[in-house]
Q: What sequence folds into this?
DNA sequence: TATCGTTGCCAACAAGCGTTGACCAACAAC
DNA sequence: GTTGTTGGTCAACGCTTGTTGGCAACGATA
């Protein structure tokens, strides 16, 4: 469930020499991200991904091993969270909200991750991994009570994920209609509070 | 997609006389809620629901028409939101948070709805319906700026749904580990603010 | 030019799905 | 006691899915 099929190439220590199939691989990944984002894990079929990418389904299998491997590759994500210690303390909340709105709107990876995570255990693992490896450490650096970093990060995450759900996944009209800076000015202080308050 | 198959009984105006099959129907619904909650729409198979209920798959079809009808029946929910106008104004937030934690923990209906809504359009409709018909009107009665009732409700919903996602669906450890009153004392003021602030 | 790994297509497989219709047992009404 | 209705099983259908293996064209290397 967690191996790297890559391709029948050099068995080891091959520092990723460019392959003739790189364009195809990229097309597959892009199609996969779109399908996973639109349909979730089960309804996103390998056949549909292949069709979108303009190739045969068996190519997807060759390059990514199986459906789980395809999702693993398509859901790799680096949130690129900024170094929060160099952000003016009173702008932490707004900065984070803006960053997440950006990340959510740049491509469909986050939507795909959430849609899959909700009904697929491997997807849920992936999302928890993002939380543990990226969100939590980044927030810990500026958390008001260092030993509460996990729960504070969970609170921040709950507000950000919740807005993402309503606005980008469920497409609830009043959430979609909020304009960007409106979201920032509402959620910013909330995040700020979860992060910097000494006590609830 | 939106008819009521019920059963081959009186064609109309039959005020739901008890049927001999009521126990079976209830068993099917309970099994369905569990399966939808655990697996989402696609992976929750009619065969599995029938197995859990101890009957034949074709019974599910007879009583609920098809899979969509089964979900429609299993996802009927009344949040039973209290009349917020009779809640002391400064306790609005805490009251709402407690109510939602209760509702989420009483049975698996909410988890099922969220799990399905994320990958199934009918499920998403259902959840948006709950928002429009139950959450929004209830909150509108106490909204600080009446003409902003939709966006305020979306903000409140985003925080509540987000915590529900992390705590009951994704089972993110630090969100699961928060104890109840801790959640109330963090989210309460947030909800309170979204609801009663004149301005972000 | 001959070789060999790579890229791609095609056809098929086994399994699982939602759904259907025929059929039987128990009950209720007359 | 017969008859019609209801509750339930069984076996099958058509379809889609993930996945596999064989085979042909291509491109670099020798």
A:
């Amino acid at each position: 469930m967690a191996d790297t099929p890559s391709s029948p190439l050099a068995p080891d220590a091959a520092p990723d020499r460019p392959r003739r199939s790189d364009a195809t691989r990229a097309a597959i990944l892009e199609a996969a991200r779109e399908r996973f984002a639109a349909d979730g894990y089960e309804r996103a079929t390998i056949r549909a991904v292949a069709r979108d990418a303009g190739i045969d389904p068996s190519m997807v299998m060759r390059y990514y091993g199986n459906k789980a491997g395809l999702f693993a590759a398509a859901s790799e994500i680096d949130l690129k969270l900024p170094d929060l210690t160099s952000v003016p303390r009173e702008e932490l909340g707004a900065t984070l909200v803006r960053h997440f709105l950006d990340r959510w709107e740049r491509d469909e990876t986050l939507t795909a991750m959430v849609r899959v995570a909700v009904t697929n255990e491997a997807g849920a693992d992936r999302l928890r991994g993002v939380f543990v490896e990226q969100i939590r450490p980044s927030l810990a650096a500026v958390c008001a009570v260092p030993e509460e970093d996990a729960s504070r990060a969970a609170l921040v995450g709950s507000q950000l994920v919740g807005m993402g759900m309503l606005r980008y996944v469920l497409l609830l009209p009043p959430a979609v209609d909020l304009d960007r800076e409106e979201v920032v000015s509402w959620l910013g202080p909330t995040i700020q509070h979860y992060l910097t308050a000494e006590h609830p």
